[in-house]
Amino acid sequence: MFDAQCDVAALVYEAHQPPDGVLLDFVAGLKAQGLRPVGLVQFGHHNAGVAELTAMMVHSGQRVDLFQEAAAYTVGRRLDLDKLAAARSAMMAAIDEGADLLVVNRFGRQEQHGRGLAHLIEYALGADVPVVVPVPTFRFDDWIAYIEGMCVKLPCQGDALAAWWNGLAQRDRVRHVQHNVCEVLK
């Protein structure tokens, strides 16, 4: 079911393990190596029933508020699907410009139902761009159904994420060498 060389990694986390710091550190390391990660990392949480969520586009540094402004008669804020769609479009354009990795904010309720950033995952994989998606433990079964089991399950730790990435890089180096050897032997 799980393939350590798969281009999709689920960074599985518990409620007390927000994955955002792990992702930001990982993305910073990739950028320091001259690579171009694309995606969205969340800053924020639900606090006493009030959602506060800002995210950052990792490829541009742009901050994105993903919630609607609350009306005077409402309690809390709701996810703004138009803002999420705009962020998805911006990430698709960034993939088209060249990406080494896609970081998806979360696998949440919207993605579980094929909305939100779900199509972005398919888009990246269609462009041969590896994907990492934080998945809360309580949604992992839904994630496996969505991705049809084709993923690497990682604990929410930077070293696990780095090991997965390094495995992909090693696999790609071997493929490159094999491809070049085949060209020489023709």
Q: Can you characterise this structure?
A:
The protein is 42% helix and 22% strand. The protein contains six helices and seven strands. The protein is globular. The chain has a seven-stranded mixed beta sheet with strand order 4-3-2-5-6-1-7, with helices on both faces. The protein has one domain (8-185): P-loop containing nucleotide triphosphate hydrolases (Rossmann fold). With 186 residues, it is an alpha/beta fold.
Q: What is this structure's SSE topology?
A:
Elements: E1 8-13, H1 20-32, E2 37-47, E3 50-57, E4 63-65, H2 81-96, E5 101-103, H3 109-112, H4 118-126, E6 131-136, H5 140-147, E7 152-155, H6 158-185
Parallel strand pairs: 1-6, 1-7, 2-5, 5-6
Antiparallel strand pairs: 2-3, 3-4
Q: Features of this protein?
A:
single chain, 186 residues, alpha/beta, Rossmann fold, 7-stranded mixed β-sheet, globular, disordered C terminus
How far do the termini sit from each other? 37 Å
**Average pLDDT metric:** 82
Helix proportion range: 40-55%
Return Rg in Å: 17 Å
- Biggest β-sheet, characterized? 7 strands, mixed
Instruction: Enter the CATH topology name.
Output: Rossmann fold
Q: Structurally, how many domains make up the residues?
A: 1
Spatial arrangement of strands, main beta sheet: 4-3-2-5-6-1-7
Shape: globular
Structural class: alpha/beta
Give the count of helical stretches.
6
CATH superfamily: P-loop containing nucleotide triphosphate hydrolases
- Which residue ranges are poorly predicted, with pLDDT under 50 across at least 5 consecutive positions? 46-50, 175-186
Kindly provide the name of the CATH class.
Alpha Beta
- CATH architecture annotation name: 3-Layer(aba) Sandwich
